[in-house]
Amino acid sequence: MSILNEIFEKALHSRIFINRELLLPDYVPDELPHRDKQIVQLGKILAPSLAGYRPSNVFIYGLTGTGKTAVTKYVLRKLIEKAKGKVISAYINCRNSDTNYRVLADLIFSLGKSVPFTGLSTAEVFSRFKNYLDSKRKIMIVVLDEIDYLVKKSGDGVLYHLTRINSCLKHSKLSLIGITNDLKFTEYLDPRVKSSLGEEELVFPPYTGKELEDILRIRAEKALRKDALAPGVIPLCAAIAAKQNGDCRLALDLLLKAAEMAEREDANIVTERHVRLAQREIEKNLVIDVIISMPLHVKLVLLAIYLAEAFNTPEQTTGEIFNVYKDVCRKMGVDPVTQRRVSEIISELDMLGLINAKVVSMGRYGRTKKIKLAASKTSILEGLKSDRELYDILEHIIEEFK
Ligand SMILES: Nc1ncnc2c1ncn2[C@@H]1O[C@H](COP(=O)(O)OP(=O)(O)O)[C@@H](O)[C@H]1O
Ligand SMILES: [Mg+2]
Question: Domain 36-204's class?
């Protein structure tokens, strides 16, 4: 199979990549430009652990992609190297571990022990963790990343006990680092938890376009071949991400996807066109992800807006959407929800950024909403098609509306 051989050879001798992995989001690079201040601050807060003192708890916040996770992992890695066994750490992402039980089970696991997945009371698991930790005679630094997921799903019970654990430990000590993108979640916290978690606070501001360019350039140096990038590529990735709240994750994702597009096309260099293609793909995936997780009637209202826009006039009122929606429900054989609920759904879709609904005055007839799609039609259609129930009937409904 010479063709297969060709494919394999190409993969071995990429014209674009030197090491693709260096651009993946979970890779923590050796250098984090424009985060010196936060690295030094966190380093100073944690340094006392080297001399056997318990560091203050730290609360870290800032928007997505501002380097919170990367900086925390980086500083901890350096600290653990330096501590030569005196300090231990655990990193827990609360998006995956969003119950009190799971967090404690993960902590126990990081001490080299284990507990069953279920069956024990949380109090029992906590007590085991406390005993294991104390017998270690170490300082333990626990990172709870995306801590808002834990608190919103399961409350702050485990945080309360973890912030108080030191009074029950004789030989070990524990410090917490809580990280979040969502400052509002602190409203859900017991004031005592809030104040002990926030002994120290660190803010991560969004990156500017210029800063993102520096970051991308350094990461691209080792990941991509020297001549594989057209000059405008990095500035474009940085500019797009700077508009999205300075999100470095997006900047890297754009660069990686653009490079993959170029490679798939067998091109020698990545160009701005590849970045635009990558941008469209990323937006499409976001739209699809949002739609997949929506309840059926939210999808049906979105479908109604899609149909109204595709086959009628580009701006619709709530009443018109409601009529199309009822029609869709009839064709699907499901009972419609009320117009009032549809109106709420329209506001939800607006907040998700899938549609634009602006309120306009109709003089003495009151006010109404003018509704139009904000995301691309193809992405919306693809998102809706990912619903099994809708998949079979969608083409049929669209046909009938033409
Ligand atoms: N200063 C930086 N230098 C290099 N890469 C960075 C820098 N800041 C963030 N990154 C990268 O950007 C992505 C998002 O950063 P991350 O730390 O996950 O953000 P957050 O946790 O704030 O959402 C990660 O892949 C990370 O490696
Ligand atoms: Mg993070």
Answer: alpha beta
